Queue: 2 jobs
Job 1
Amino acid sequence: MKRMLIEVNGIVQGVGFRPFIHKLVKDSGLNGWVKNSTTGVTIEVEGNYDVLINFVQDIKTKYPKLAVIEKVSYEIFDDIKGYKGFDIIKSTHSQEKFTLISPDVCICEDCLRELFDEKDRRYRFPFINCTNCGPRFSIIKDIPYDRDKTTMAKFPMCSSCEEEYKDIEDRRYHAQPDCCFECGPELFFIDESGKKTTNNAIEIARNYIKEGKIIAVKGLGGFHLVCDAENSEAVYKLRVRKKRDEKPFAIMCKDISAVEKWCMVNKDEKDLLESFRRPIVLLNKKNNLLEHVSMDNKYVGIMLPYTPVHYLLLEKDIDTVVMTSGNVSDLPIIKDNEAAVSELKDIADGFLMNNRDIHVRCDDSLMRIYNGKEYPLRRSRGYVPFPIKLNCNIQEILACGAEQKASFALSKDEYVFPSQHIGDLKNIETLEHYENQIRHFEKLFGIVPKKIACDLHPDYMSTNYAIDRGKNSNISVAMIQHHHAHMVSCMADNNLEQKVIGIVWDGTGYGIDDTIWGGEFLVGDAKEFKRHGSIMPIALPGGDKAVKEIYRVGYSLLYDSLGNIPEKFILTNDVKTIETMIDKKLNTPRASSIGRLFDGVASILDIKHKASYEGQGAVMLESLATNDDEIYNFSINKDNVISVLDWREIIRNIVEDKENGVQNGKIASKFMNTLVEAAVKISKEIKMETSITDIVLSGGVFQNMYLLDRLTKRFTAEGFNVFVHKRVSTNDEGISLGQIVIAANGGEVKCV
Amino acid sequence: MAVCGTINDICMCGGEPKYLSLSFIIEEGFKTEDLRQIVNSIKKVSEECNVIIATGDTKVVERGKGDGIYINTAGIGFLKHENLGKERIQKGDVIIVSGTMGDHGTAIMAARNNLITGIELFSDCAPLNNLAEEILSYGDKVKILRDPTRGGLATTLNEFVEGTDMTIELEEDRIPIKNSVANACEIIGLDPLYAANEGKIVAVVAEEVAERLIESMKKLPEGRDSAIIGRVTSNYPGKVIIKTQIGGNRILGKLAGAQLPRIC
Ligand SMILES: [Fe+3]
Ligand SMILES: [Mg+2]
Ligand SMILES: [Zn+2]
Ligand SMILES: [Zn+2]
């Protein structure tokens, strides 16, 4: 007889772990107890040595589907306490507060079956859940994960539910959000006149959708705006009311066969769509039937239902709806009922909501599949707050991220916890959400940052936050170069530590020479980097104005390449002013940015002149591109030490092609092929000089699949190893991971 | 301009400007005609403001060693209102401006560079002694005043609340901005709230006197566009925010230098 004390770390709470242990114990005949601790689950059992060892082995291999086992450690003692039977005992509060928390999980197969089973007592119950599914992160206020620390605290369980909750054999054993018609939250509908209806709320909502109306629906992490996606009039109405002219909407399809009506879906995409995380997956359109949902774009973002309410809404004759986040332009997604009614009253005709509070807002995630792997564009619901695991332990650091796609990250031991999607920090509402979430994460994971990492840009709100917080709490603040952070983010994403070539192409980021970068060829690791190459700076008359009014960039490219702006490329009457601004460098910063080059080319090709959402020019170029292999001539100049791609010849060739009537699709293709060849040429130079053959690709420009794919294939053919993102986003959302790893290695530009 | 600047600085501290020093550094070859024009305008302004040019100096530098002319002024006056300061700003106070914002900075950029044709832009350079006197007649109801020169309204307001528990909340549609300035800023890509002003006052005053004060300021020619543009709250400590027409409250941050692109 021996006694064994086992500690299991990972996502082991709220995923049916203790019942699983109970079952294992019953089969093996061991005695003792199990409890949730703030660091995971602790088990003490007594029995025969071999049985104990087998027991540990079973924990490691047979754990429940939603559990993620990070570590199982155990000690064996000779003294016996003489337990009789096996108990689940109350959670303890230990000093070191640290446990992994589960993301929100879509409804499981068992619950789904019960939902539509007339004989089940939860037949059509909108809040059905069990230990394998349901809300988690969005309702948890504090740990350990117990009902009274969630927004379910205000719903005392009825006796039937309590019985299930206490029955170790039951699927709902210790399912914290468990409830039923009798004791659970209530679904209701509020119409245009403010009238609340509790009966038939689903039927009313379905009728609204069928009539072409717009409704706001409370989901897991916030409200959605919903309308019939096949009704173009309804979709246009939503565009007008939401002031969202051209940006694609995400849609929700009843099932895979509905998805296949609109899009091509391969095996990996199907698996991702159906995974318990239920992200929006960006898919290739099969036809133009959803042009009003996602225009001038060959992709559309689709997700499958993930809550019982979604399944009840998308029944029978409703199979595809627009499901876009319920917010007012650029503000955080709305999560509270009162706010929904007051803020969305001009957008939604009715509201389908309930009285279960959302504690943490969390937007839908946006993913795509590249080469059979997940390629994140927005890592949020279903993923957060699960950590990214590193190869080594690092100190506790807070990384403040960037600005427009703000997200932060916290680290502890070998984990980095990136936050959910936060949004654009220019508004105080978003900044508040950002600051609140930093505090919430610090509390949940018991992290007290010893160092703060932020971007080098002096005007980012996140930089201001970092510096203020550093000053007030006397913590040192590491300022990190934007593209270095992108590069190291992709390295950490792939667990690389060696020196690499980082090709980082994005919109704009603050360089160490106080100019704006964005077409970078860096060489280095988390400790240091060197800028080996970039592109010739592009004048941006009007600064950020030129990022929105991209014809300004078009003018600027033409002016620099040809010395004048040819008559037929002049679209506006501010052209003289813009020329003067460029000549005299008036509010005309320069940016070595590939993103801006795309903008300018989109305007020169007369595809887009004012972007109604960021990156629109690039998205449209990608969508138009044919599969040509031709390239334009280009030259790379040595400017002091760095190799600089001179785009003027490319622009001149584009103008010539355009004048000769070459199709835009072919020009777009040639343009991107040229960037690929230029990247290959510069990288080969670097390889000659440094013998480095590992390349990481990061930055928002690599949301472009044409470019990413061509680049990857060319580099592979040239003998390079190419690494792309797979766990965090390639855009600015992902840089907080890089910031943490750089700060941990002392790779910051300066420390304040 | 130089003279106005010094007079205004004294006014903004609650002082009554009395004596000015005036020094010229003139490059050899500078036109006497231009010099005469400058001296005349100084004379005019100082007489209007009841200020005596008490002392001064003139230096001539070799051709090519100066940039035409440099004028340096310093001034002293009597302190009349001791109770001005950001520590007196309280929740509930309101923010007033004495006229349209961004005129000077925009005019300078547009005019110096022949940037914009067909848009009339005037610099608003003017002495503020009368306006300041009017405002200061409200005694301790006036918390602070400033001429929002470099960095414009946004920078000045940030200085008011920086490091305090106070928030300044502005309403975009209440801030007076000339159409021509708004249009020019639109084209150049400048934010008029960060563009320099000359001859404008921004003040924080107690709410109960604000309406009356605006009425009396409007009676002065240099204050005819006066307006209440926002109020002091404690919602977001240390921040200046602006309620925009499209919804949402944009943060008017302190900018480190030139407005560099932030969009990635
Ligand atoms: Fe970036
Ligand atoms: Mg001054
Ligand atoms: Zn379930
Ligand atoms: Zn119940």
Note: Residues 387-484+734-751 of chain A form a domain with the Nucleotidyltransferase; domain 5 fold (CATH 3.30.420.360).
Job 2
Amino acid sequence: MAYEMNFTPVFARTPELISGTIDTIVLSGQSIVIGLTIGLAVSILRVDGPKWAAAASAGYVEAFRNTPLLVQLFLLFFGLPYIGIRLSADHAAILAISLNLGAYSAEIFRAGLLAIPKTQIEAGLALGLSRLQVMRYVVIIPALRVIYPALTGQLTLTLLGTSIASAISATELTLAGAKIESQTFRSLETFLVLAAIYISITFAFRLLYWIVGLWLFRRSVPKTGSAVATLSLPREAET
Amino acid sequence: MPALRIENLKKSYGTVPVLKGINLAVENGDVVAVIGRSGSGKSTMLRCINGLEPFQEGSIVVAGHRLDQSRANLRDLRKEVGMVFQSYNLFPHLSVAENIMLAPRVVKGLPRDQRELLVRDVLSRVGLAEKASAYPDELSGGQQQRVAIARSLAMKPKVMLFDEVTSALDPELTGEVLKTIAELAEAGMTMVLVTHEMGFARRVATRTVFMHEGKIWEEGPSAQIFAHPATPELRSFIATDLK
């Protein structure tokens, strides 16, 4: 007996799907901004910080990379109230996903920082730049260029990971879908539609990363000293 | 006061001594070539002068800044002591002009119009005025090294350090870099050069220092050092080079 697809009951809930989509985009966007900020700071501390800060950074990274995101989410949402910190589901979701991305991206950033030759750093220091200025003006952009594919891959994983926030009833797309499914009993149709929406969101985000990449690396070229004009992103005309 | 005075400089890597008590004075306008075999400590000594290498004993006074084990005020010193490296170390994501302007902008806060004048000035001094908007990987090794010299000049250093700056270049490109350095010497820049270019040391350096086993083995006016080496070690070193 063939199953007859019927999307009508699902499409009837379009407003909920749209608001779920917006919630997922907002949750992802906020978590990505906060998470990457954490990741960058932690990676710099781990590579170039005082010993205690490097150790603390390493501890954080290990703790969050070796526990499930779902458990982290439960800890923040169900666990913290016992020590007097009460977060809304949405806030707990942003915090957990940001901290999770912070740990993963810190390792990616660290790989990039370590890929920059020490001589580049020495050249910056010899010119009188502070360590922080060397980081900012000399190291970051070439380092980002090295790790950009890995980093944007991680961001896609993080975006899709926001669906886990439905487990604590944070408002986002999967929660909206689950509600629709439970009321229409159109499981196959509902989750097919959800999958299609997630694909659209990730593609939109990846397009955004690509554009950001073009801007970030508009003037960067492959490693120093390479005589061959290898593939590089288009460079601005003379400014 | 000399432009550079090194007193009893001692450095070791773990238990291995690399510099065993260096004393050296360089007057303003002096061009000092430092020669010696690999491992004799010459690059390490140079890198101590602007604090890239910490050291255990002794002191260095350069361009009026005192450097000791405390490593205080290192940035003030580095603003006035330029350094050029063997591997050029231009920043690959910045154009030639941006490479040159970076430190004057972020370290000295030089305004934009003055930065542009500065770029033109230092690039013309190294003969690359037309390359301001090029990127490092579009330049030959010799050109990159001349840009690195220009970048260092843009900080208006009182003393410049050159660490085997032609070792990565073929003879033709070596020539153009050495010519640039010779012009700086003529203009009165105080310089310390670690080099393997004996002919250049002899012609351009006012004084030559021969390092051996972590010590200054012999030093004097270049003409004398090369024509009448006093120690057997220097004699054999010069002889090896001629072969």
Note: The radius of gyration of chain A is 22 Å.
